[in-house]
Amino acid sequence: MSPARGVLIRRARLEDYDDVMAIGCMYNGRDYLSSLYEKAVNDPDIYPFVAEVKGQVVGFYMNHILDGGLSVMKRAARVYPSFRKMGIMHKLSHALDRHVATLRPGLQYLYISASDVVTSKVENEYKSLGLKETHRKPFICLDYYTKDLSVSDVTDHVCLDSNIKHVLDENKEVCVTIAPSTKTPNTAASFGARDIDVVTFSEWFKTEVGLIYVVNIYTSEGSSDQSIRDHLWRHVDFLRKLNLCDKDIFEVSFGPNVSEEKVRSYLKQVGIFKHSNFPFTMEVLFERKF
């Protein structure tokens, strides 16, 4: 198809919700945008844009400012099926680039995250835009029933003090375990100045297929397996107490220092072991320095 003409790119509004959702669900029913749309429109660090053709909303894309204004991540890209391959996504992307360059001149990095399946289709395009793959993180998706969750040995973990509100808000948190040390602990030091063993970030949102609880695991080299287990069990116990849905999905992503076999084993011990029907197994992060 030839490139679309008469495409209007503008800031998304609350009243666009139904039109944006009508574009279609992404990620095999696990789309987070329906749950987070209001936040995306109202948060001053998120810039959501829509594309209109003859008054119809046919595309959506947004920038998310992170790291205290040093980084921006493009998220939630989508175009209505009958308007794809017409250059609309390029128009949205260029509009986001112009907008963020004007409002946030101190930005240093652009990030885009994609699944391994999507990456296989867009990798060459990303490279042509100066984006370089920085790392791949495997992730697993498991179905579970809330009534089957059982955690009896949960170790409390401290919520990391942070001024990054995107991490600590109504449906996100981060927990940290400090590595054992022979040094006299300095309790006055910030977490960033201490030896961190394991950090886990979690978020949860409702989708077409139920609640999805996402945990990202980051570890130091030689981190404690017990710390990883305790973090996972803590999140499961928290999820059980949330009790938002009867049947949900638990998603975990992790780096090279974490054993997938052990992650599955720890989750199986507390009632999470059924494979979810999800075609992606890897999250790929791309970066471009401004």
Biggest sheet details? 13 strands, mixed
Q: What fraction of residues sit in β-strands?
A: 35-45%
Order of helices and strands: EHHEEEHEHEEEEEHEHEE
Q: Which stretches of 5+ consecutive residues score pLDDT under 50?
A: 160-168, 189-193
Distance between the termini: 33 Å
Number of helices: 6
Coarse shape: globular
How many strands in all?
A: 13
Portion in helices: 10-25%
Mean pLDDT, to the nearest integer, reads 84
Structure class = alpha+beta
- Please tell me how large the radius of gyration is: 20 Å
Describe what this molecule looks like in 3D.
This is Histidine N-acetyltransferase. InterPro entries: Acyl_CoA_acyltransferase, GNAT_dom. One of its GO terms (molecular function) is acyltransferase activity, transferring groups other than amino-acyl groups. By secondary structure, the protein is an alpha+beta fold. It is about 25% helix and about 35% strand. The protein has helices spanning about 15-20, 35-40, 90-105, 115-130, 225-240, 260-270; strands at about 5-10, 45-55, 55-65, 70-80, 110-115, 130-145, 160, 170-180, 195-205, 210-220, 245-255, 275, 280-290. Strands 1, 2, 3, 4, 5, 6, 7, 8, 9, 10, 11, 12 and 13 form a 13-stranded mixed sheet that branches. Helix 5 (about 225-240) packs across helix 6. It is globular and about 60 Å long.
